[in-house]
Design a protein that fits this description.
The complex is a heterodimer of chains A (88) and B (613). Chain A contains 3 helices and 2 strands. With 88 residues, chain A is mainly alpha-helical. Chain A has one domain. In chain A, helix 1 packs antiparallel against helix 3. Chain A is elongated. With 613 residues, chain B is mainly α.
Chain lengths: 88, 613
Amino acid sequence: MSEHNVEQREAHWKKTRSLMIVNLVIWFFFSFVVHWFANDINSMSFIGFPLGYYMAAQGSLFAFVVQLFIFVKMQDKIDREFGMAEDE
Amino acid sequence: MSLFRMEGDFINNLPKIYGFYTGGFVVFILLMAILEQMGVSANTIGILFIAFTIGIYALIGWMSRTMQVEAYYVAGREVPPVFNGMATAADWMSGASFVAMAGGIFMGGHAYLAFVVGWTGGYVLVAVLMAPYLRKFGCYTVPDFIGTRYGGNLSRLCAVVVLVVASFTYVTAQINATGTIASRALHIPFEVGVWFGLLGILICSMLGGMRAVTWTQVAQYIVLIIAYLIPVIWMSNKQGFGVIPQFVYGDAVARINDLESLHQIGVLKPVGEVAKGFPGLSALVNPHSTPGDSALAAWKFVTLAVCMMLGTASLPHILMRYFTTPSVRAARNSVAWSLFFITLLYFTAPALATFTKLQILDPNLATSIIGKSISEVMALDWIRNWSSVGMLAVSDTNSDGILQINEFFMRGDIVVLATPEIAGLPYVISGLVAAGGMAAAMSTADGLLLAIANALSHDLYYKIIDPKAETNKRLIVARVLLIVIGAAGAAVASLKLTGILGAVAWAFCFAMSGLFFPLVLGVWWKRANRAGAIAGMVLGFGAGTWYLYMVRFAGMEPWIGLDHLRFGIIGASVSLVAMVVVSLATKEPDAETQAMVDEVRVPRGNTILGSQH
């Protein structure tokens, strides 16, 4: 029912899964780790902001946006590598 | 007029069409500003703003009417990523985001920023775990995925129930918000405003389903983002923070830190019985940028963020937006654009809260009120306007004739709506903000109503009750359901049961309790089977609901700070354990299902469910 053999599929999925895990680790860091220590890093200053406040109000948000655009590129590369990307 | 009929041309011309639209809206704002200078009353300008924008949405809704299943359910699967990103952003940013978020930050300080982090970070989960795979599946609704992946009517029905409960909780809050804004702008009673709001919402969605909702949501995003950014930029200019204030308000945050000790914020608390005299209003007691230093404060921050994120990735009205893109790649891309457009508003909300707070607190600014004499403060227009509608109150508790921080009470919601008045901006800005709030609430309500009605018409009626129904009949049933559910939502909203935000957080917790793990594991764990998914949905949703009931209504002490806003943590944990245990205890899915999961993981090739299914 498919044009791809089992090894190809498995290799593709393995890489996709690794990319997923890397992305979730980054996500976890900017979602929880930095905010857990908000009080400690608030004494540091970033472009005039207390760092803990900055990360919750802007920093994490930017990290997520940048992360997603990079994710899109990388997943697309994986799909192409195994001939599994859609036709343009 | 023919633009919306000739599909190919319409899609290719999207940037031009919405470019003209944006230009037209800016011209309209300028026209209103001129009318204001010529002495047209504030009321008239407010009415014109609401009428003009709703008129445009209605026009788009009418031009997008359709009798095709694929167009009605998934907008013909031809929405380009950037535009789907805008539509999702409007779908996503509710009346609560637009109206209440800055106010929440104003009142709650750092702790409230957990909503900002949660409502953006959730999109990482959507992009990485969900959206591309659901798009490859080719489903029309979220229960469509559950029902096909796990098989059987019972699993489909469980998903429908969770979807309806979560989305209905959410939609009443949105209709409530449209009612509030309409009643203020048009000077009609709230109960009438609610039905007026519903009428506007239905005009956008009824004739064209997902296609109409998509193109109105893009239009609504443009209105709401302009309406949110202009007042902030204007105000920051007045305070000398430049034209891109979001990056340079660090000094304002630091200044508020100093002012907090000056005004003894957090030290002076309102005297008990005084606060009780103003239900729904509160005095400012939380520091702006300093989180509580206990581990509990950090725990509360991350648990709230978890709930909002997992909820984001389970809410069907968001997931179904990614069914409308032309390809799997486009679906992924579109999630990134959605988050970009959402971030534009979300990173502005804390800036707005900061500027507004500075306006009120800083004795060097003419607009400040804390530390001024009570009689002087009571003479201000905006104080009079908002206290007359019960959203603000001043009480000289210690009878010294000077306003202290613990003598000033307000509803957080008014920060966005009242800021233009506080800063002394012309009324045209207030009208614009009202139109923006209306756009935010309407677009979210449309997405939610459509999610509910589509699940009931496609999954319950067509897939379970009458699989032989003809296309015309299906689409008529879908529309009747839309009206019935909308009316039910408006009826509940007019009862004013909860504040806007309580109900919104509940919707996220309901969705994550029942749907998060069945959706994720459906793609990422081949071994997950029907019995496991049903156990995950029923037990997760049941446990979450039970916990909510116990904590909120039966007086149970919350476990380790997991209050009624965070009950999804309980629900989703139970859901995960139940799903894994039951799946492993029962037979693995058949070869056909496993092959289907393999197929979902490959972007190339046909969707699992054919079109016209």
